Amino acid sequence: MKQMTITPREWLRGLPKCELHLHLEGTIVPETLVKLSQRHDAEPLTLEAARALYVYDNFLGFLMAFKAVSERLQTPEDYELITYEMIHRLSEQGVRHAEVYISYGIILRFKTQLTVEDVTAAIERGRVRGEQDFGTTVIWLIDAVRHFGVEEAAIVFTKAAELSKIYPSIVGIGIGGDEARGPAQDFKGIYEEAKAAGLHLTAHAGENVSAQSIWAAINIGAERIGHALSAVDDPELLDILAEKQIPLELNVTSNLRTGCCSSMEAHPVRHYFERGLMITLNSDDPPMFGADLLDEYETVHREFEFTFEQMREIAGNSVEASFLPPMQKLKLLAEVEQYR
User: Fold this and answer.
1) 153: number of Cβ within 10 Å
2) CA 277 to chain centre
């Protein structure tokens, strides 16, 4: 047998994988931010100044960085640009398919000069060009901000249902934001309506609050759980997650950078894997946290001593947990299995 001469990073880059927890607005790298700044700022940012915005010490610093970046999304063309460039970077990491959140909640509340219809048409233009040029496929998850309240989320989900009839790439909804100020159980009714409209259901849960938030997300019908950090504190919940094989969208670097997890050693990714939970690895807001999906795979492989065979299993999980049509899933799963 020929000895492996490539590095672990090169092997992991070639491994077919899906990214299931990624926020479009959080994919903007400093170089793209400079382009946006040149379009909109009287005194455009230098690359050095743009990079400085991504350096912060705590969760509040992250929120301020995210705000400074997203404020420069002012036209549909801006959204088309960041979509196209996101797909280019995904393809360079060996990501074959991505399911990407876009926050209609933010657009409806803060981007009064834009409509979600115009933004959606723009990201679709970017998606179609990006898929043609780079091969990585993308579908959209429409995100509501839970602490803006149920009424605003209902408007978001109604828009998602309407636009999914025009754009089949809109496949699901989710709630992000402050879990403590927007408990999942409040959204049960509108989740049922979204499901009836043919949309998949996801939810951020257990990122920085107790495992009760994850129970609530399951109870309102979430098919996938984003973060799920606090499940580690609830053995009964771990049993349910393992038994039902509810996919978890884990974000190790994100959890460390936001302070939701105290240290690399404290992260439950290995424990979840050994308990038989269906874990996937994801990057959340890559340039904000200094790690894209390939970095995430490399970090988990190195820090938690996952073998290549186990990394293949995690990549397979990302395909199985995706909202791809069955035939596309089977084809991609076969590629994961055959990869050596």
Assistant:
1) 26
2) 19
What residue type is assigned to position 277 of the chain? L
Cα 216 to Cα 206: distance, rounded to the nearest angstrom: 10
Mean pLDDT, range 25-50, rounded to an integer: 96
Give residue limits of the domains in the chain.
Answer: 8-338
pLDDT digits (tens, 9 = 90+) for 188-239: 999 999 999 999 999 999 999 999 999 999 999 999 999 999 999 999 999 9
Q: Tell me the percentage of the chain whose pLDDT exceeds 90.
A: 94
Average pLDDT over residues 290-297: 98
> 12: Cβ–Cβ under 8 A, 6 or more apart, which residues?
94, 294, 297, 298, 301, 311
Residues 330-334 have a mean pLDDT of 98
- Neighbouring CB atoms inside 10 A of 290's CB total 12
- Other Cβ atoms within 10 Å of 75 Cβ, number: 17
- How far apart are the C-alpha atoms of 236 and 239, rounded to whole Å? 5
pLDDT at 1: 36
At the fourth CATH level, which superfamily is domain 8-338?
A: Metal-dependent hydrolases (3.20.20.140)
| 281 pLDDT above the threshold of 50 | yes
Among the listed residues 85, 207, 249, 296, the single catalytic one is 207
CA dist 84 and 70 (Å) reads: 16
What is each CA distance from 288 to 6, 67, 214, 307, in whole angstroms? 29, 11, 25, 28
Question: What would the pLDDT profile of 177-193 be if each residue is shown by its tens digit?
Answer: 999 999 999 999 999 99
C-alpha 30/C-alpha 53 separation (Å) is 8
Residue 265 is a catalytic residue = no
Q: In what order do the strands lie in the sheet with 17-23?
A: 17-23, 95-103, 137-145, 170-176, 200-205, 224-227, 248-250, 279-281
**Cβ 199 vs Cβ 193: under 8 Å:** no
- Of the pLDDT bands very low, low, confident and very high (cuts 50, 70, 90), residue 63 is confident
